[in-house]
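Structure in, sequence out. Go:
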């Protein structure tokens, strides 16, 4: 699978949510001996286990077609079969949440797909609703 490049706080990826309505930044860091993604949306800071990048690519490859993002806050249920549901499922490769900050563990389906698109690893729709992604045709 892909190797996630290192990107520090002083040179983050500048990204937009899939519908293009909000800007955010993402960079890598290390916490407790493992690489994490730090996503900054305004004053809100979310942390994700960086393994989500390779694991999500694996899930998309296995799906073989478009998968709905289904982004949702931690406190809300995720749409079944979506990227968001997978990112918190007991059956994903880490056996649960990729989000690392209690109370802010959701929204993987909103913030991680634009990074994969920026890295050329996926195709991502940019609709207002029901947004989907799939592994890049160059990788399949």
């Amino acid at each position: 699978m892909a190797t996630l490049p290192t990107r520090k706080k002083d040179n983050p990826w500048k990204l937009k949510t899939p519908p293009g309505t909000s800007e955010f930044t993402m960079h890598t860091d290390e916490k407790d001996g493992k690489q994490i993604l730090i996503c900054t949306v305004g004053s809100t800071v979310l942390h994700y286990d960086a393994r989500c990048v390779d694991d999500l690519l694996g899930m998309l490859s296995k799906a073989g077609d478009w998968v709905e993002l289904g982004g949702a806050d931690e406190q809300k249920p995720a749409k079944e079969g979506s990227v968001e549901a997978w990112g918190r499922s007991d059956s994903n490769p880490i056996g649960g949440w990729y989000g690392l900050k209690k109370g802010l563990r959701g929204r993987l389906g909103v913030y991680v797909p634009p990074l994969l698109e920026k890295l050329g690893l996926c195709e991502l729709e940019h609709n207002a609703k029901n947004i989907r992604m799939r592994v890049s045709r160059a990788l399949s």
